[in-house]
TrEMBL record:
Main subcellular localisation: mitochondrion
Protein name, per record: LAFE_0B05336g1_1
Family assignment from sequence similarity: Belongs to the mitochondrial carrier (TC 2.A.29) family.
PANTHER family xrefs: SOLUTE CARRIER FAMILY 25 (MITOCHONDRIAL CARRIER PHOSPHATE CARRIER), MEMBER 3, LIKE-RELATED-RELATED, SOLUTE CARRIER FAMILY 25 MEMBER 3
One Pfam family this sequence matches: Mito_carr
Role summary: Transport of phosphate groups from the cytosol to the mitochondrial matrix.
Organism lineage string: Eukaryota, Fungi, Dikarya, Ascomycota, Saccharomycotina
GO cellular component: mitochondrial inner membrane
Length: 313
C-alpha cells in the first residue's frame, strides 16, 4: 500500500556555510585541491615534452614527434613521467592558492571601506593572489623540483616522487628540494596575480554585458561565465609567466653544485638568450589556457554544489 503524501519524509535541507567562516575557507581550500591536482596531472604528457624541449630544443622536432619517440622507445606509460609529483605538488599548491586567495581577498578588503575597496579592487586582487601564491609555492617547490628532474633527465632520475625525494635529499640535502624556489616564485607569483586578477575583471566585464544580473542567472550559466573567463585569463597567464617557466626548468636540470641562483641564471641566459626564454610558448598557451579554464570550472562548480556563490561579481 502506498504511503500518503503527509507521511513522506521531508527533504533534508543542506546546511548553509557562512561566508568567510573557517568552514568557508576550508571548503575553498578543498575546492583548490579538487581543481588543481587532477587538472595539472592530466596534462602531464604536454608538460613532459614542453619541459624537455625547453631544456634541449633539439631533442624533438615537435611535440608530436616527442610523444611518438617516447612511446616508441619507452612505452605509453612513460608519457606520464612526473604524474605523481605533479598531482601531489599541485594539490598542495591549489589548496593554499585558492583557499589563501579567498582569505587574503576578504582580509584586505576588510581593511578598507566598501567604497574604497571596490574602487581599488584590482589592487586587492593582485595583493591577495600574490600573498596566497607566495605561501603555496613553499609547498609546491619540492615536488616541482622532483618533477622537473624526473622529466628532463634521460634516463629518468627516479622511479616516482618518493624515490626522487630520497635521492635529492641524499645527494644535496633538504636545500636541494628548494633550489628552484626563487625562480618558482618569479614564475608562479606573476602567473597567479594575472590568473586571479584578470579572471575577476574579465568575469566582471562579461556580467556587465549580459542582459541579466548575475544574481538572476542560473548556476549553470554562472559556471559557463567562469569557464570562458578562465580560458581568456589562462592565455594571459601563459605569456606573462613563460620566461620564468623556462628558467625554472633550466635551473632545476642544469644548476651546478655550489652555484648561486644568480650565477646559474646568468650562465643559463648567456647560453639560450632572450629568444630561448620563449621556447615552447604555443604549447604552453594551449596547456595553461585549458588548465585555467577547467580549474575555474571545477572550482566554481564545487562551490555551487556545496551552496557557495561562484567567484566574481
Amino acid at each position: 500500500m502506498s504511503s500518503s503524501p503527509s507521511s513522506a519524509p521531508a527533504p533534508v535541507a543542506r546546511r548553509q556555510i557562512p561566508l568567510f567562516s573557517p568552514e568557508y575557507y576550508a571548503a575553498c581550500t578543498l575546492g583548490g585541491v579538487v581543481a588543481c591536482g587532477p587538472t595539472h596531472s592530466a596534462v602531464t604528457p604536454l608538460d613532459l615534452v614542453k619541459c624537455r624541449r625547453q631544456v634541449d630544443p633539439a631533442l624533438y622536432k615537435s611535440n608530436l614527434d616527442g610523444w611518438r619517440t617516447i612511446v616508441r622507445n619507452d612505452g605509453l606509460r612513460k608519457v606520464f613521467t612526473g604524474f605523481g609529483a605533479t598531482f601531489v605538488g599541485y594539490s598542495l599548491q591549489g589548496a593554499c592558492k585558492y583557499g589563501g586567495y579567498e582569505f587574503f581577498k576578504h582580509t584586505y578588503s576588510s581593511l578598507l571601506s566598501p567604497e574604497t575597496a571596490h574602487r581599488h579592487r584590482t589592487l586587492i586582487y593582485l595583493g591577495a593572489s600574490a600573498s596566497a601564491e607566495f605561501i603555496a609555492d613553499v609547498f609546491l617547490c619540492p615536488l616541482e623540483a622532483i618533477k622537473v628532474k624526473q622529466q628532463t633527465t634521460l634516463p629518468p632520475f627516479c622511479r616516482n616522487f618518493v624515490d626522487g625525494w630520497r635521492k635529492i635529499v641524499a645527494n644535496e640535502g633538504v636545500a636541494g628540494l628548494y633550489k628552484g624556489l626563487t625562480p618558482l616564485w618569479c614564475r608562479q607569483i606573476p602567473y597567479t596575480m594575472c590568473k586571479f586578477t584578470s579572471f575577476e575583471r574579465i568575469v566582471e566585464a562579461i556580467y556587465a554585458r549580459l542582459p541579466k544580473p548575475k544574481e538572476q542567472m542560473t548556476q549553470m550559466a554562472q559556471i559557463g561565465v567562469s569557464f570562458v573567463g578562465g580560458y581568456l585569463a589562462g592565455i594571459l597567464c601563459a605569456v606573462v609567466s613563460h620566461p620564468a617557466d623556462v628558467m625554472v626548468s633550466k635551473v632545476n636540470s642544469d644548476r651546478k653544485a655550489g652555484e648561486s641562483m644568480m650565477a646559474a641564471t646568468s650562465r643559463i641566459y648567456s647560453k639560450i638568450g632572450f629568444a630561448g626564454l620563449w621556447n615552447g610558448l604555443p604549447v604552453r598557451i594551449v596547456m595553461i589556457g585549458t588548465l585555467t579554464s577547467f580549474q575555474w570550472l571545477i572550482y566554481d562548480s564545487f562551490k555551487a554544489y556545496i551552496g557557495l556563490p561562484t567567484t566574481g561579481h
